[in-house]
Design goal:
The protein is of the alpha+beta class. It is about 15% helix and about 30% strand.
């Protein structure tokens, strides 16, 4: 997930009507004259709010940050809900247990990645698919013919509490219901200050973290916000726009739908082949994926004294071989990093290649495996 922004996006702005986009129910808590909004999954979110981004990054790394994120839960319910999800998702979710989440991809008939997200089983015959950017509800409807299933919008807004202190904060928020025994991608309904909310141990920062899903009009959003900060201040909790998420999600190798991956790239090319179950009897795109090239095209790219911004071109000698999909300056690694999508498979790792920025400046960098650091995911697991 994580189709977020680079520095150039703060200048590349336009004024648009808000009529067809959903405003955050937390807007009164975060609005400011410095806010720049983005639109993601049909929802407004703050991509910048006048903060010191580097300062917020280190609060995320050392304490905890609260993010108001635009990822969108879609509810799939009814006797045939599981059948529909198994039809459109490349991962076998037939054995998913209540209170468990799976990262899962939806592919086009040609095997390209149409959507990425996390599917949760809330109860028997009731699931949420927390989608990234794109039109997933329409896709589900198009494949639901002759199935006894309902596809609805639960109007759930998502708050992420991320960082090393997030578990301590969640433990206090839930009066001990959530503790270190809650594993990654586990989830369930919890009571926070008298309000019933759905919570998962997940996020897209590469840090220890949790996501709180509101329940539409049943949730008093302002009261929830105030209570979270009342409890979280003890552990240094702060709010940030999604700017610091952008840096951490790239460092952590978390790909953004429609930014780093899209319908022209298969899960194998994106390095996400482990989320494709070719043993399943059927799913959309399986036929093409059975015979698809299983080699990866997407890697990390590290540069000293150069930030590999989106659209930068990669050259081997004088041959154009790849393009940067997203890039940032990494405070932890003290160098520029980004994702490079190669035009064809090859022995790319550890290759030193030339990079040309869209502004025509040139530099050099090396190809690396993802993620850029914490390859054993110790931060994510709270170790």
């Amino acid at each position: 997930m994580g189709n977020l922004q680079e520095d150039d996006d703060l200048e590349n702005t336009v004024r648009i009507s808000a009529r067809r986009f959903d405003e955050s129910p937390f807007i009164s808590k975060i609005d400011s004259k410095n806010m720049i909004r983005g639109v993601y999954a049909g929802r407004f979110h703050a991509i910048y709010n006048g903060e010191d981004v580097l300062e917020k990054y280190w609060v995320l790394r050392k304490k905890a940050i609260l993010f108001d994120v635009p990822e969108k839960p879609v509810e799939i319910s009814g006797p045939d809900a599981k059948e529909l999800l198994n039809k459109v998702l490349s991962r076998d979710i037939s054995k998913i247990e209540e209170g468990r989440g799976y990262f899962a991809l939806a592919c086009s008939p040609n095997g390209g990645i149409f959507m990425d997200g996390v599917v949760f089983k809330l109860e028997e015959n009731k699931y949420w698919y927390v989608q990234a950017d794109g039109e997933f509800e329409t896709w589900l409807l198009a494949h639901s013919e002759d199935l006894d299933v309902k596809i609805t919008d639960p109007n759930s807004r998502v708050l992420q509490i991320q960082g090393p202190n997030s578990l301590k904060i969640m433990n206090l928020l839930t009066k001990g219901q959530i503790d270190e025994k809650m594993k990654y991608y586990r989830s369930g309904f919890y009571t926070i200050d008298g309000q019933k909310l759905y919570v998962s141990r997940s996020g897209f920062t590469g840090e220890l973290g949790f996501e709180i899903y509101t329940l539409g009009e049943k949730t008093d959003h302002n009261a929830l916000w105030d209570f979270i900060f009342e409890i979280g201040k003890k552990y240094g909790l702060e709010f940030s726009s999604t700017r610091s998420i952008t840096i951490r999600r790239i460092e952590a190798g978390i790909l953004g739908n429609l930014t780093d991956i899209d319908i022209t790239m298969t899960p194998f090319e994106a390095g996400l082949g482990k989320f494709v179950d070719l043993e399943k009897k059927y799913f959309v795109g399986k036929k093409k994926l059975m015979s698809a090239d299983k080699r990866t095209l997407l890697f990390g790219f590290k540069c000293n004294n150069f930030i590999p911004s989106a659209g930068s071109k990669i050259y081997q000698d004088d041959n154009f071989v790849g393009i940067i999909t997203a890039g940032v300056d990494s405070p932890t690694l003290k160098c520029g990093i980004g994702f490079v999508r190669f035009l064809s498979p090859g022995d790319w790792v550890n290759k030193e290649l030339k990079i040309i920025h869209p502004n025509k400046t040139e530099g050099f960098g090396s190809v690396v495996e993802l993620p850029f650091f914490d390859k054993e995911k110790k931060l994510l697991l709270g170790k």
